[in-house]
Write a structure and sequence with these properties.
It is built from 20 helices and 25 strands. The strands form 5 sheets. Strands 15, 16, 17, 18, 19, 20, 21, 22 and 23 form a 9-stranded mixed β-sheet that branches. A 7-stranded antiparallel β-sheet has the order 2-7-8-9-14-11-12, with no helix packed on it. α8 crosses α11 (about 265-275) and α15 (about 365-380) runs antiparallel to α16 (about 385-400). The chain starts with 6 loop residues before the first helix and ends with a helix. InterPro entries: 6-hairpin_glycosidase_sf, Beta-AFase-like_GH127_cat, Beta-AFase-like_GH127_middle, TAT_signal.
Length: about 725
């Protein structure tokens, strides 16, 4: 049976049909909501979280690539016309569109997903305002919210057809929601509750980040409508609806309804959140049964962030257990080296990474949602693994997803990010799901740099981004200078504040080249263990300075299904080989190894930071977002057991797990002396002999080559 058309494929058909003629209806004036002071913190935090975030406005980005990419998206937020975002809403409500055309892409005058982009745009502007405090952004946000309020009222009073409840707000009639209840499939209808979620999320962000009270009122009425629509439906009907490919995709409706409940206290809103339990998948993940193969990735990832919010509201452990287990089914077994997941929007078999690389991997929306899930899991259980993944996805996918050129007419972000050989990134995506999440991603880089413990006694430093934290409750202002993602020393300076505080520094799992932490020039005595947090507890004073040195080292990562298909990293940074060739490039490194057992003899610095050369090719940091064809994976070719110039002539055979003799040997490096190296070769050669992978003659030839090699450090 053929796979239904992807949303991306329909985008290519719709791109040329964006409305060219303005939608015009009877004029109705718009009134902006009154400006109010921004909320100090997100009102949807759970009191029993172990760790809490800081508000966006409390963390300011410093100089560097993150701020440069952020600034590109800020220009888009400032410049893109609000009336174009509102055109589809006004047309549906019978209001004057003021001559504005819809944005295009999926956001057209007749598109079945129209309105979703407006929800993302609300979040974009709300985050941009929370970050910059620019009055023009606040005015723009208030204008958007006020206009949506007018649309909601107009639909309730004279909608054609009249909605079933006065809280209804969308950019199309209620028909799609009605058809879903009779199990109509995609593309006849297209994820109506997904669109509803984006609009509601944007409204709640306008309330939480910019203090717009009208936004909460509109969202609350929408929540009332959701309950009126779903609250009476049998569970079996709901489960069938949510199982439908794309048509049943609802984004994070359970999350936004749970968040709404914390703000309104309405029992109906929590009851409506329960309506979005995707019971079969929820039960399987709670039992740690992996049934993800063949499921639409981004249809399901945000559901699990919602389940965590449901756990916060209800205390039902199955929600949290399912979310933890789901994360483990994706991160690692289904994750490409950049941190993304999925092939053509779909989850594939567990461990199928090398087998699925092509030009349409890693839907950017999916990584956006995996980062949200990781962050939410960390709040409840501060496991460093969540932040290790967060750093990977943020640095190598999200940062890489914004083209390094200015545009005020397009977000210039990626949809798929191919991992196959010789692919390139395509940018743009006005009106698509990834265009929407892309707008959001690049205006909230700072949201997970720092967290605080629930009792305020500890400060977590999760990411080493140049930034300044203002923590008024404790009186601290902490400045971090850093060139991340470039290599270098990270320095944290207490600019204001004093008193006791545990500073928890994340030591990334890749930091295996020796970590040195000093406080006011004195080395901290505790061992910095990769994949953990190092705690520095002291009475802090203005001027105190912590320096963190985590040297990068070149390393490879193997795919789980084919260890010969590998990626190369420098510290946390994915390096890609620039080449238009459409097949895997073959790289051989072991012949250049010294006793250190590292890649420095095989991969040479090019002269620019984070750029290298090997096998006649340039290796570039993937976050540099241009139009060059690249290879994120290469094929490791080590056919013969060779040590330096000493060639044994023996085939480098692999054992059952795909690892070759040389793989297993060099995984034991570094070797202190040539003698220790020869001992390791002899022991492993004996193992290969016992397993039938070497003959006695081959075993002796390998050991003899190790002796002849006389390797040095």
């Amino acid at each position: 049976m053929s796979q239904p058309p992807t949303r991306r494929r329909l985008l290519s058909l719709a791109a040329g049909t964006a409305a060219a003629v303005p939608l015009v209806h009877a004029a109705t004036p718009a009134h902006a909501a009154p400006a109010t002071a921004p909320a100090a913190a997100t009102p949807t935090e759970a009191p029993d979280w172990a760790v809490h975030p800081f508000a966006l406005h409390q963390v300011t980005l410093g100089d560097g690539v993150f701020r440069r990419k952020r600034d590109l998206m800020l220009d888009y937020a400032r410049t893109y016309p609000a009336d174009r975002i509102l055109a589809v809403f006004r047309a549906n409500a019978g209001l004057d569109t003021r001559g504005a055309r819809p944005p295009g892409g999926w956001e057209t005058s007749d598109g079945n997903l129209r309105g979703h982009y407006g929800g993302h745009f609300l979040t974009l502007v709300a985050q941009a305002y929370a970050d910059t405090r620019e009055p023009a952004l606040k005015s723009k946000l208030d204008h958007l919210v006020g206009a949506l309020g007018e649309c909601q009222q107009a639909l309730a009073e004279h909608g054609t057809p009249r909605p079933s409840h006065p809280g209804y707000l969308a950019a199309y009639p209620e028909t799609q929601f009605i058809l879903l209840e009779s199990y109509t499939t995609y593309p006849t209808i297209w994820a109506p509750y997904y669109t509803c979620h984006k609009i509601m999320r944007g409204l709640l962000d306008a309330h939480a980040l910019a203090g717009n009270q009208q936004a909460l009122q509109i969202a609350s009425r929408m929540g009332d409508w959701v309950h009126s629509r779903l609250g009476h439906l049998p569970r079996a009907q709901l489960e069938r609806m949510w199982s439908i490919y794309i048509a049943g995709e609802y984004g994070g409706m359970n999350e936004v309804m749970a968040d709404l409940h914390t703000l309104t206290g309405k029992a109906e809103h929590l009851s409506a959140a329960r309506c979005f339990d995707n019971t079969a998948l929820l039960a399987a993940c709670a039992e740690n049964r992996d049934i993800l193969d063949g499921r639409h990735a981004n249809q399901h990832i945000p559901q699990f962030t919602g389940y965590l919010r449901m756990f916060d509201q209800t205390g039902e452990e199955r929600y949290a257990t399912a979310a933890r287990n789901f994360w483990g089914m994706v991160v690692g077994p289904r994750t490409y080296s950049l941190g993304g997941t999925g092939q053509g929007e779909m989850f594939r078999a567990r461990g199928a990474v090398a087998a699925t690389v092509d030009d349409k991997n890693a839907e950017t929306c999916a990584t956006y949602n995996m980062l949200k899930l990781s962050r939410q899991l960390f709040f409840r259980e501060p496991d460093p693994a969540y932040m290790d993944y967060y750093e990977r996805g943020l640095t190598n996918h999200i940062l890489a997803s914004r083209r390094d050129t200015a545009s005020t007419g397009s977000p210039e972000v990626t949809y798929f990010v191919g991992m196959g050989p010789g692919v390139l990134r395509e940018y743009g995506n006005t009106g698509t799901c990834c265009g929407g999440t892309g707008m959001e991603s690049h205006t909230k880089y700072q949201d997970s740099v720092y967290f605080r413990s629930a009792d305020g006694s500890a400060l977590y430093v999760n990411l080493y981004l140049a930034s300044t934290l203002r923590w008024p409750e404790r009186g601290f202002v902490v400045e971090q200078t850093s060139g991340f993602p470039a290599e270098g020393v990270r320095t944290l300076t207490v600019r204001e504040g004093s008193g006791p505080l545990d500073l928890k520094l994340r030591i990334p799992s890749w930091a295996t080249a020796g970590v040195i932490v000093t406080v006011n020039g004195v080395r901290h005595p505790a061992e910095a263990v990769p994949g953990s947090y190092l705690t520095i507890g002291r009475q802090w004073r203005p001027g105190d300075r912590v320096r963190v040195s985590m040297p990068y080292r070149l390393r490879i990562e193997r795919t789980p299904d084919d260890p010969s298909v590998q990626s190369v990293f420098h510290g946390p940074v994915l390096l890609v080989a620039r080449s238009p060739e459409q097949g895997f490039r073959a790289f051989s490194f072991y012949k250049d190894f010294t006793l250190r057992g590292d890649l420095t003899g095989a991969i040479r610095p090019e002269g620019r930071p984070l750029y290298f050369t090997t096998h006649g090719l340039t290796l570039a940091p993937f976050f540099v977002a241009d139009d060059t064809r690249y290879h994120a994976y290469f094929r490791r070719s080590e056919p013969v057991v060779v040590f330096g110039r000493a060639d044994s002539g023996v085939p480098n055979r692999a054992r059952g797990d795909g690892l070759t003799f040389l793989d297993v040997l060099w995984d034991q490096a570094p070797f202190a002396t040539a003698g220790r190296f020869v001992e390791a070769v002899r022991a492993l050669a004996d193992t290969w002999l016992s397993a039938g992978l070497f003959t006695r003659t081959e075993r002796d030839a390998v050991v003899a080559a190790a002796v002849r090699a006389d390797l040095r450090n």
